[in-house]
Amino acid sequence: MNNFEYCNPVRIVFGKGTIARISDLIPQGSKVLMVYGGGSIKKNGVYDQVKAALKGFDVVEFGGVEPNPQYSTLMKAVTIVQEENVTFILSVGGGSTLDGSKFIAAAAKYEGDDPWDILEKGAAVNDAVPLADVITLPATGSEMNCLAVISKKETTEKLAFGSPLVFPKFSIIDPTVTFTLPLRQIANGVADTFVHVIEQYVTHSVNSPLQDRQAEALLLALLDEAPKVFTAPDDYDVRANLFWMATQALNGWLNVGVAQCWATHNIGHELTARVGVDHGRSLALVLPGVWRHQRKEKGERIAQLGRRVFQIDEPNLDKAIDATIAATIMFFQSLGINATKKEYGVTDEIIKAIADLVDSRGVKFGDRKNIGGKEIIEILNLCD
Ligand code: NZQ
Ligand code: ZN
After folding, report:
1. Whole-prediction pTM value?
2. Same domain, 168 and 134
3. 40 lines ligand 1 (CB under 6 A)
4. Which residues contact 28 (CB under 8 A, 6 or more apart)?
5. What's the pLDDT tens digit per position in 121-166?
6. Which residue, by CA, sits nearest to atom 8 of ligand 1?
């Protein structure tokens, strides 16, 4: 197992009726910026519950954070934080609103010229406004991690940053708020959860049997539970279980001491930045291509996934890999996710532009850092 350092200070408050707890959890006397998205919280009663819980606090609101939150929008909130002396940020919404809030928290205290440098140049985050969230969509795990992914449409970029200073102080997870999600978004969240586990598991083995079994447990539970949300969309327990799986898939427990890949995410982000495909769907499109391309490097682990999770009993390695890729695609299809590059508008020109941009940054993706522009073209040519 590799060396690791582990710290996760996020207080999770989980269950029905937990939004009311906000009033005890935010420090008294805080000046609060309440950040939200395009308005779903006003339709499903979450806005009213949060406002009721914030009674007595001095609150400023900032709505309109988009899916795949945009830098230019978030910078407007940064100005509000600075001008209004905001001391606490409360994100109310999905992963985009929360990621946007993390960026606002760090950018408001950034002392350099342009906070975009935090994303593009890895500029240090030395301070941040404390933040917390009411998370309304099970997918990203952002509620229990210190990561954020921010987009800049002017330059077709979508980049991530992480800092311990943007761990939420607390996260309220009330699964009842997910009943208003379109099933398409639930499907996206299941695909995202699945691929989060995969990118910490289908890597190169470092002899970490506990982490392997933890990842497999999560995947087995997800494969059991996900279909139920379509047949029993009103079942609270299914919603609660899926939410806790999404949270655990990217809260740092699975990746301690193991090799991590993230190539599917990195390429998926580039596709989203160019053609706007939903995050979860971008992953379902790219993952089979990554596996077909990295067959030699990842073959043993793909076959292990097939054997232990998809119950594929096939002694021949090549056949086991093929069967596991097919089973994974079938799982995505069972969620209603089956569009092709053509349907998402991913053309050869777009693929070339992505490859050139990645090369111009001088980065390589994957657990072996062996995926650059040339390999991205090969991978996307291996996707449907
Ligand atoms: O904007 P509103 O009106 O709130 O509507 C949202 C949005 O249209 C809606 N929604 C959210 N909760 C709802 C709801 N509608 C009805 N009822 C509810 N309870 O759902 C739509 C999608 O929301 P969004 O926040 O964009 O989805 P998600 O949570 O999947 O977040 C995606 C973003 O997170 C990033 C992605 O790249 C993408 O930008 N990720 C963040 C990660 C992290 N911080 O660790 C890791 C992930 O791999 C991912 O990259
Ligand atoms: Zn993801």
Report:
1. 0.98
2. yes
3. yes
4. none
5. 999 999 999 999 999 999 999 999 999 999 999 999 999 999 999 9
6. 67
